[in-house]
Structure formats: C-alpha cells, structure tokens
Amino acid sequence: MRAAIIDASHEATRRIDLLAKKLLEIIAVRDSTGIPMTVGDAMTISALASPATLHRKIDMLREAELIDTIFIGKNRRTKYLVPTDLANDYFSKMGKAVLKSLNSSVL
C-alpha cells in the first residue's frame, strides 16, 4: 500500500515496471559507491533479463527522466548511467516511508 502512495507522488515511477525499478536501484547503488555503471555493465546483468530487455529498460528510465547518461573524463565513447534528482527524490521518499513504517510497527 505504501509503495502505491509513493509511486502516486511520482508520475515518472508510475510509468516504469518493476524490472526497470530494480535496474534503477542497481544503478543508484553503484553510483553511490562512486563507481557509476556503464551502459555495457547494465546490459550484462543476466540475473535480471536479457541484454535487449535491459537496453529497453535503460531507455524507459531515460524517458522517465530517472537516469541520465554522462561521460567521465575525456573518454567520449563510454556512457555512464547515473540517477537524476527525480530518482534521488524517489529514493528519499521510499526511505522515509520505510522508516515511518518501522517506527509505527514498533509502537
């Protein structure tokens, strides 16, 4: 129920499916470690889906403005995937909802 409330507050997250959300989580975690994921890295996550499906999910996330592609340094051939401010806001709201849920279950 809480996920539906959070998703309703973000039109962008309502437009993507669960597989795309899982990929977004992986991209965000990698970015938070300071080692952003390349498009090629993302397409090799065989535990999630085939490379073609993952490429479609990357496109879906870009269209929803939840990820962006950047270049690092002078290398213009490698694209790195990073979460946008919209994605970071989504994760912030998710975190607050989890904390609220945990706090209310303790009482």
Q: How is this structure best described in words?
A:
The chain has helices spanning 2-8, 11-14, 18-32, 39-43, 51-63, 85-106, and strands spanning 37-38, 67-70, 80-83. It has one domain: Winged helix-like DNA-binding domain superfamily/Winged helix DNA-binding domain (Arc Repressor Mutant, subunit A), CATH 1.10.10.10. The protein has a 3-stranded antiparallel sheet with strand order 1-3-2. Helix 1 (2-8) packs antiparallel against helix 6 and helix 3 (18-32) crosses helix 5 (51-63). It is built from 6 helices and 3 strands; from the N terminus they run αααβααββα. The radius of gyration is 15 Å and the shape is globular. With 107 residues, it is mainly alpha-helical.
Short description:
The chain is mainly alpha-helical.
Give me some keywords for this one.
mainly alpha, single chain, 9% strand, three-stranded antiparallel beta sheet
Task: Present the secondary structure layout.
Layout: H1 2-8, H2 11-14, H3 18-32, E1 37-38, H4 39-43, H5 51-63, E2 67-70, E3 80-83, H6 85-106
Antiparallel strand pairs: 1-3, 2-3
Q: What's the overall geometry?
A: globular
**How many domain modules?**
1
- Biggest sheet architecture: 3 strands, antiparallel
What is the overall pLDDT average? 87
N-to-C SSE string, H for helix and E for strand: HHHEHHEEH
